[in-house]
Amino acid sequence: MQKITRDVLVSKAISLLEDGNVSHVLGWRKGEFDYDITPSVFSEKEDIENNFVWNDFCGANFSKYLVQKTRKLEGKILVFLKPCDTYSFNQLLTEHRFDRDNVYAVGIPCEGMADISKVKKICGEGISSIDFDGDNILVNTVYEDAPIVIDAKSVLSERCINCKSKKHVAFDELIGEEGEIIESGRFDEVEKLEKMTPDERFEFWQSELSKCIRCNACRDVCPACTCEKCVFDNPKSGVENKAPANSFEEKMFHIIRAFHVAGRCTDCGECSRVCPQDIPLHLLNRKFIKDIDNFYGEYQAGAEVGSRAPLVDYTTEDVEPSDIFEGRNG
Amino acid sequence: MFKSSLNSINEIFAKIAENATLYLPSDNKDGNAVYTKWENGVVWSNSLNTVKSPKDFFFPQVEDMMAFKTEGKNIEINDIREESEDFVVFGVRACDVRSFDILDRVFLVDPCDSYYANRREHGIIISVACTKPSETCFCKTFDIDATNPGGDITVWKTEDSLYWSANTDRGRELLSKLNLEECGDEAVNEQKAKTEAILNKLPLANLNTDGFGGDKTDALFDRPEWKTLSESCLGCGTCTFVCPTCQCYDIKDFNTGNQVIRYRCWDSCMYSDFTKMAHGNNRLSQVERFRQRFMHKLVYYPANNDGIFGCAGCGRCVSKCPISMNIVKVMKTLGGND
């Protein structure tokens, strides 16, 4: 359960709106069943009071929306940022993707977000409403008279189990207690893959990526994917953006995309959250992050604005290609 | 009405598979139900439904249509499609059975789509009535009875038994080969009543189609709410690709080096290059693309198909949209729902 209540965020949003400091609020809009939350722009007090939500299902990262919203909307936008969202926020600023002056960023603490599919594996179908009580999630379903009690920790999203930071790296104002950068086990799965034989690893990715339906949700939600026109959306490019034509093409899509965001991916985990086929796409990105850490020294994309990512920088200390080759064989 | 024990289901699957390839929902390693070719050891899923709809069986996501080869001034055109063999799809829910009707009205009308028709002729549908519907279900909105799903054969599941009833000649022929024991319909009626009670308790039980239909283009097209409804749409194709009724496709040529293969693949009205033609693009913004999807399901399709809506209420888009925006929210915002 989140330590900061919805009411605190609602009054913050309303006071900033009413004082004229901001003209829009980027927040989470309630849905039909307490877990189906939609990122949304609020500009009326009443709308915020009635429809703004903040709970364990507010996983959506708003940073990328700022690229589009700061262009379209008049005035300043208030955005609520969880610690992991602030890394994407900084990375987008580094890439000059939105005007910082048009944004008022409020950092909010996060206790980790729930994965609704994990919830459903426990309580089954037919959720009518969800309540929160201390460390528990109470799920009411049409099949049971009493709510099903679930320990919130047992249904945390993978990216939150392996949370890399409770510390905000960007904000104008902070609500609640600031956290720390965490030594997470986020590379454990990557290490398992590295220990596989090439054939085993090929088979792993073959079976994962062959589930892809080319909905492009991973790309469209990715804060590192902000090209005005993606090469895959260009009918003249010779590559198809919507046909998982054969096992080759879809693999290329995900691997090319991982290369393209290497050094810029902050490991926010949105790609895996939105994948309708549960492909662990974040593992491709984490492999790149791990390799960059190994070969160029630790680097966290988005930790600060303006940092030069190792792959687009040159120093005389840079690793020699031959070292990488040896590293791969060793 | 015929009866079999739930324990003997694998023997029945084996019998069906003797004469035709059998597909049924089975859980993959992630625990998601996927239509899988049955062979010994494949277990029928307990999930309510599959992530991807069964429309793939008749209208696959990608299919090769023909091939061209040029030599000098001659063009050789080859029909490279493979003739379908008989197949049986078991475990189809009522919503997805309706989706086949919706697709038929597009692909089987003149000019008939022979690729689709060929598969349709070879496929037998065995539906299974729902017993544990989800909060995302709203098939009732479109007058679909989840307790009586149709298809060639309908199956009802109770705690320990399966009840079988054929609806078509093809279904009767297949059912007669299974040598099942005849029975009355009391147990089925009891199960139907139980499910009916749950259906009435679902959060979307009262969602209605008031305000939508073939004559509502003018009333809905310029509604200002489209802008707010679509404001955070990512423009991805998840809703269209998990949808059992989305039927738009693109046809493209792929140059393999020594020949050109003409293939078609599902397209998504959410994509920026959807129906892109020489003049540029007819829908330049995401608001327009978003509106197109829902207008198609709720207005344009019924306008051309005797008032039948182009949605079956399966709820796949409701559970899979990355930003949880969906047809239910659109209907509640723009229609006559409370």
What value does the Rg of chain A take, in angstroms? 21 Å
Q: Enumerate the strands of the largest sheet of chain B in spatial order, edge to edge or round the barrel.
A: 3-2-6-7-8-9-1-10
Secondary-structure-derived class of chain B: alpha+beta
The N- and C-terminal alpha carbons of chain A lie at a distance of 44 Å
Largest sheet of chain B: 8 strands, mixed
- Global geometry of chain A: globular
Low-confidence stretches of chain B: none
End-to-end C-alpha gap of chain B: 41 Å
DSSP summary, beta strand count of chain B: 12
The count of helical stretches of chain B stands at 11
Could you tell me the strand content of chain B as a percent range? 15-25%
What does this structure look like?
The complex is a heterodimer of chains A (330) and B (338). Helix content of chain A is 37%, strand content 13%. Chain A is of the alpha/beta class and 330 residues long. Chain A has 3 domains: 6-114 and 162-174, no CATH class; 116-155, no CATH class; 188-329, no CATH class. In chain A, strands 1, 2, 3, 4, 5 and 9 form a 6-stranded mixed beta sheet that branches. In chain A, strands 6-7-8 form a 3-stranded antiparallel beta sheet, covered by helices on one side. Chain B is α+β, with helices and mostly antiparallel strands and 338 residues long. Chain B folds into 2 domains: 2-54 and 82-201, no CATH class; 217-334, no CATH class. In chain B, the strands form 2 sheets. An 8-stranded mixed beta sheet of chain B has the order 3-2-6-7-8-9-1-10. In chain B, strands 5-4-12-11 form a 4-stranded antiparallel beta sheet, with no helix packed on it. The radius of gyration of chain B is 22 Å and the shape is globular. The mean pLDDT of chain B is 95. At the A-B interface, strand 2 and helix 9 of A face helix 8, strand 11 and strand 12 of B.
